[in-house]
Here is the input.
Amino acid sequence: MNLLSKREIVGVQLFTVEISESELDTYRRLLWHVLKNLDAKEVERLFGDEPEELEGLLDDIENIMEEAGLLKEEEPETPELVAAANENA
Here is the structure.
């Protein structure tokens, strides 16, 4: 992964990066694993985010991969909010 540029807008750092297919897929699999295996409280404790925020990141990654023709049809897409379901169980 390479940093191409960075800028700040309203106190938020934005980065333009170059990322390989395998790196992007690793991030997708990591997010999918977290959402599938952790409940909402654990996600928030470990990441400081609600599961819905991680689902949004996963959706973004899957959309990028789909646009690039990298997401295989047999691979699972974003899981339902498993973390919330685990919490309610």
User: Anything to note?
Assistant: The chain has four helices and two strands. The first helix runs from residue 21 to 37. The chain has a mean pLDDT of 87.
